[in-house]
TrEMBL record:
GO molecular function annotation: ATP binding; hydrolase activity; transferase activity
Keywords on record: ATP-binding, Hydrolase, Nucleotide-binding, Transferase
Transmembrane segments: none
Gene3D superfamilies on file: Cyclophilin-like
Domain called Carboxyltransferase: residue spans: 23-283
Domain of life: Bacteria
Presence of keyword Transcription: no
Annotated organism of origin: Seonamhaeicola algicola
Signal sequence segment: none
Protein name per its UniProtKB record: Biotin-dependent carboxyltransferase family protein
One Pfam family this sequence matches: CT_A_B
Length: 283
């Protein structure tokens, strides 16, 4: 069990998401950065899709009520165990009574805490991912007591020294493919979209990232059609919206680009004011 002494800015439990229920309007959800979450689980010898704690910018304060092993991957938010600095991407033994806390954000935006055997919180529609109106809670709250798997001394840690390539946390290039309405853009619009730099607006969260710059929009609205995480929509005002893990399942704005899975991971580690560019060979 883990007691939440302080919840941090926005902390949730996530796995790889819900599948097969999008026809009911239910988002995929799941970890924003699958690469970091997978690293964290792999280092502990867990299945890659076991539920983890997703921590955004300002970390929580957690007291462990049982012995376990933990690993933190993704953003560096200056983690401490009993007020002593610990490193990301390492298997760390935690004893009952130990307190995990976080400090200054140094790199990235979202960190992932895995525990040996995974979190054992609420499972709805075959997923542990928190989402408003689907699970009882949409985020971790102060005073919560989170169930985790029982500790097993016999678990082998063959992956404990795995080399983690986290340089992607600092890149700003997002690989994209054509969206369904891309070819309706003019040549000038295409060139602007694929050669300009864009900055992340204050309107960014698990549902979508809106960009500040404007692309003149001469396209007509489309009939409401399917969208998914990574879809880049062009609004009537010319703003670009990049849909993320908690996005809706349909939309009526032209879909001009589609981010690759790795690019969704990269974007999820960015925050307000940071710069991104779209990288492609489609022109």
């Amino acid at each position: 069990m883990i007691k939440v002494l302080n919840a941090g800015l926005y902390t949730t439990i996530q796995d790889f998401g819900r599948f097969g229920v999008q026809n009911y309007g239910i988002p995929y959800s799941g970890v924003m950065d699958k690469q970091s979450a997978s690293f964290s689980n792999a280092i502990l010898g867990n299945s890659l899709d076991l539920p983890v704690m997703e921590i955004t910018m300002l970390g929580p304060k957690l007291q462990f009520e049982t012995k376990t092993r933990i690993c933190i991957s993704g953003a560096n938010i200056s983690p401490k165990l009993n007020n002593k600095i610990i490193s990301n991407n390492k298997s760390i033994l935690v004893e009952a009574g130990d307190v995990l806390s976080f400090g200054k954000l140094k790199k990235g935006f979202r960190a992932y805490l895995s525990v040996q055997g995974g979190f054992k919180t609420e499972n709805v529609l075959k997923s542990y991912s928190m989402y408003q109106n689907i699970t009882l809670k949409s985020s971790v709250e102060k005073g919560d007591v989170l169930k985790i798997a029982s500790f097993k001394d016999s678990v082998m840690l063959a992956n404990a020294s795995i080399k983690v390539a986290d340089t992607y946390l600092e890149t700003n290039k997002l690989e994209v493919a054509k969206g369904p309405e891309f070819d309706q853009l003019s040549e000038d619009q295409k060139k602007y979209l694929l050669s300009n730099t864009f900055s992340i607006s204050k309107d960014n969260n698990r549902m979508a990232y809106q960009l500040n710059e404007v692309l003149e929009n001469t396209l007509k609205p489309i009939i409401t059609s399917l969208v998914k995480p990574g879809t880049v929509q062009l609004t009537p005002s010319g703003k670009l919206i990049v849909l993320m893990r908690d996005c809706q399942t349909t939309g009526g704005y032209p879909r001009v680009l589609q981010l690759s899975e790795s690019s969704i991971n990269i974007l999820s580690q960015k925050y307000t004011g940071q710069i991104i560019t779209f990288k492609t060979n489609i022109l």
